[in-house]
Amino acid sequence: MSLESLPPELQTKIYSFLVTSFGPSSIHALLKVSKQLYAVALPLSVQIFRNTAPLQVGNGLCSVTRNAQFLRYILVSRPELAKKVDTVILGGFADRNVEGNSHASSPEELEIYERFIIDSLGPTLGKVDAERRDRWIAHLKEGYSDAQISLILLACPNVKRLYFEDSQDPSNEEFFEKPPSFMFLLEMAQTLSVSGVSESRPPPLGNVEHVHVQSQYWNTCGWEQALRLLALPQLQIYESLNATYQGKLPEDSTVLAQLPKSSVRSVAFHQSHAPASEVKFVLDSCDNLTSFEYISAMWMPIDGSLSQGIMRAVLPHAETLTHLHLDFQEDCEREDWRENPHGLYLGYELAQMTALRYLSVGMQTLTGMFDPIAIKPQDMPLRIEGAPRIVECLPEKLHELRIRECGKTIVSQAAELLDTIEKGQRFQNLQCIMLAFKDENIAIEDIQQGFPELATESTRYSLAVSFQNRAMRWLDSGRGKTFEGIRAIPSLCSRIFADDLRRDWVDFRGLPTVHTKTYGKSDDTCFRTHRVNPILRMQRLLLKKPPHEFGLDD
């Protein structure tokens, strides 16, 4: 039986596996086989629109010429295909024509685009909005990538996933201006979702469910863009990579007051430079948050990004938050503990997270204890006085607990937790516990001595004890600057440049690795939900790279 003899619906399902988010897509080859395959494959060929810097670079501006070609295709040549675009992946888009190509679109095409913008936004705009719309049209004629990208997003009503880099202007890396057309589009998305234009024209960005923003930490634009994205009516997932440390602007608070509560359920700040106060400002816009992840940006701590501050940011979501993953790069020297030592651990407030089911956290963040062999200032204690024991701060209904970057100091508290569970006194739902120790600081014999009465056939929980070397802990944080073939990968957290590796990374981080001992339940399925063997996954994530390129501490 040939492919062409199958029903079109089944062919579509088969061919969809040829669509990829990076590199050449094999789906385009089918367009040249036959008229029948062409008809089935054509909608799939525009399913993902990608316009980023070359893969060898890994980040940078999108192409004005590529934007113009796609606009011509979906608004002039084949306008029926605009509804088939469901994923848009973009490099940085500037608020000026950095390529110097103002003739990428013909006058006839520009006239079509102008009419489309006017019709889509409606004829009843106020004076200020009409002026901003006309500025958008003028920038489109001048070949600004910001204006082109905004039109693409306006023209494609069924986009569900939007992954992009923040606006970039290579002539001035120290100051970012908000891309005017994109910001106007975000405002119109909110305005038109309330007032509407017509039944035949849905509000822009009305079907976006997943946003991934890859920033530059020197971005000075504040949080208005994030707040407006969070206000999109169907948004479920918001991810920020390399979030700015510059802080919110005075007008951001005004914007937040004007926006409805966000429908987003999952928020992630990966490699974040944002202090806890700014994270709380963003999370305050969420009304039904169920998942939150925060990974600190670098080996040196970020001012204002202490564990307790993040705890206060998520505490208002205690009744809805079920998934919490925190990584504060505990391998680094801590210079911030002296002024506020109690800020280094989550504290008793953690126990108030009544809905929490999954917790992944470092030893120091959970217990306020330091690894005694780690390099540290001479006056740093082994434990912050007043920090609660594990059994005192864990949420009662927790199902799965993963503690990373462990040292010998945690063994006695972990043994107390296991004894409490085994006796059935508390934590009745805690089925899976994983302790990931620093491989260089502890041996399996230390674990066995620390748990002398550990039940090997416990029916109450499964305990996995793993040992991670520094490279594995480095992978856990997502700091994967490296190369794979022609791809430059600035971070394993990047959906723009490493979406496939990112899936492996999410499965891999903190999981039991090669040196692992599992106690308790013989059924350890809670640690085996991954699709790939952990050893193979680790080899895939530790990609080979030129020796002169990024080192482990970059």
From TrEMBL:
It comes from the Eukaryota. This is F-box domain-containing protein. It comes from Clonostachys solani. Gene3D superfamilies: Ribonuclease Inhibitor.
